[in-house]
Write a structure and sequence with these properties.
- The chain has 456 residues and is an alpha+beta fold.
- Helix content is 26%, strand content 24%.
- The chain folds into two domains: 113 residues, Uridine Diphospho-n-acetylenolpyruvylglucosamine Reductase, domain 3, CATH 3.30.465.10; 222 residues, 2-Layer Sandwich (Alpha-Beta Plaits), CATH 3.30.70.
- The protein is built from 14 helices and 19 strands.
- A hairpin with an 8-residue loop joins strand 1 and strand 2.
- The longest helix is centred in the middle third of the chain and has 14 residues.
- An eight-stranded antiparallel β-sheet has the order 15-12-14-13-17-18-16-19. A five-stranded antiparallel β-sheet has the order 5-6-10-8-9.
């Protein structure tokens, strides 16, 4: 089985689409496109519900679906052209980061930013302006893009750069696909001498310990992330930090083939992931085991790229484990002085039994110029919870108010329930973005279920 399986398996056919959280599905007509000319034609034929590009469907909510619209599958627009002289690569908007890494790593390069899954497209990574474990050092994916080819709402093929077309460029970065279709992009790379990551691991006794260690030590590492035990009242965790290992740190077979890269993926099999596997009982047991398996302190452990950056990718369709109601991810960013909201959130969700195996804490560095880019200096907490937990909606509404009052915001690529009022308040440059979007798409061709829900 191929490592990357697109959810868009039919062509020019009505399909029920949903986000990775498997909530709020809607029906659209899926059309495969292979060239920018195909994209232009699809835009010219757009019906009243418009057009939207969709990658691999890893937005958790409704960002990559649009009921009644034509949804474009760009998976055939996936060329990868590495320029070793400049240390950059030009990639088709439909190429997955999985494919990009398979091309780059053996050549001695790594993507500038990767989210927690490599099963996202380059176009999607820019549209969501994804961040990773190195935001405190190197910012978002969009911050490393030097050029994009975008088809706008008029059906015109345009070249966007941060220097020559800054307004349109930065409106497209983080613009959730609502300014145009990203056909290809050029971005810079990280040179590497091995495909291994040198990792330092620390088990922390509580949330304060975790956060204090991150404040004191993250600047010494390129990559940093903390897993938090959402079931335990202390908020104890496992902090892992590291960087690309130099070849002289490798031994044995790894040193003889330092740039070998074969990420593990298990075949999709329904029996491997029982529906509804995630429940308070199993999650308490899982979190206890995960915490105990981590070393109290370990330095310089060599880990493969997949294990460090994309541990969930080993099992396809893991989202089924949350049951038929699906799940949502609650991810917010708040300034440093509102770090207490991390503990407040964990306590509130634990009180209603919303216990998660995936609770991730990171530090954010400086924001970029994109009006709708999510990261801002401070903290970000992401927690996956089953959508059917009793009291979840009311609890998250209360947490929304606290996040907003602290000057924070929610992540559009993960959101499935934010209100239009919170969107407008949390993203104060929304009006600026809308003016640029209207200039790029004067007829309102590009829309999505998320855009309609949030009155974008």
């Amino acid at each position: 089985m191929n490592d990357v399986v697109s959810p868009l398996t039919k062509r020019d056919d009505e399909q029920v689409l949903s986000g990775w959280g498997r909530t709020a599905p809607s029906t659209a007509t899926v059309r495969a496109v292979a060239t920018s000319a195909d994209v232009c034609q699809a835009i010219s034929l757009a019906g009243p519900r418009g057009v939207l590009a969709r990658g691999l469907g890893r937005s958790y909510g409704d960002a990559a679906q649009s009921g009644g619209a034509t949804v474009l599958d760009l998976s055939a627009i996936a060329a990868i052209d590495l320029d070793t002289a400049s240390g950059s690569v030009t990639v088709g908007g439909g190429a997955s980061l999985d494919a990009v890494l398979k091309a780059l790593v053996p050549a001695g390069y790594f993507v500038p930013v990767t989210p927690g899954t490599r099963m996202v497209t380059v176009g999607g990574a820019i549209a969501a302006d994804v961040h990773g474990k190195n935001h405190h050092v190197e910012g978002t994916f969009g911050s490393h893009v030097s050029r994009m080819t975008v088809v706008d709402g008029r059906g015109d093929v345009t070249i966007l750069t941060p220097d020559e077309t800054p307004d349109r460029f930065w409106a497209t970065v983080g613009g959730m696909g609502l300014t145009g279709v990203i056909v290809d992009a050029t971005f810079d790379l990280i040179p590497i001498t091995s495909s291994m990551i040198s990792v330092d691991t620390d088990r922390t006794i509580d949330l304060d310990d975790t956060m204090n260690r991150m404040i004191a030590g993250d600047d010494a590492y390129r990559y940093s992330v903390a897993w938090i035990d959402s079931a335990h009242p202390s908020g104890r965790g496992v902090l892992t930090r590291g960087d690309h290992a130099p070849v002289d740190q490798l031994t044995g077979d790894a040193r003889s083939t330092p740039l070998g890269y074969r990420p593990k993926v298990l075949a999709t099999a329904p029996k491997l992931i029982p529906s509804g596997l995630v429940n308070p009982l199993t999650m308490r047991a899982f979190n206890e085991a995960w915490f105990r398996k981590a070393p109290k302190s370990r330095r310089g452990e060599l880990q493969q790229i997949g294990a460090f950056f994309h541990p969930l990718d080993i099992l396809q369709d893991w989202n089924r484990g949350y049951g038929p109601a699906g799940f949502l991810q609650y991810q917010f960013a708040v300034p440093d002085d509102a770090g207490h909201l991390v503990g407040t959130t964990l306590k509130a969700l634990r009180k209603i039994g919303a216990i998660s195996p995936v609770t991730v804490l990171k530090r954010f560095g400086a924001a970029n110029q994109a009006p709708l880019s999510f990261p801002q200096p401070g903290w970000t907490l992401a927690i996956d919870v089953p959508a059917g937990v009793t009291g979840l909606a009311a609890t998250l509404d209360r947490l929304d108010a606290l996040v907003l009052a602290a000057g924070g915001r929610l992540y559009l690529a993960k959101d499935s329930r934010m209100s239009p009022a919170m969107m407008a308040a949390a993203y104060p440059r929304l009006g600026e973005w809308q003016r640029v979007r209207d200039d790029m798409d004067p007829n309102g061709v590009f829309t999505s279920d998320l855009a309609r829900r949030l009155s974008l």
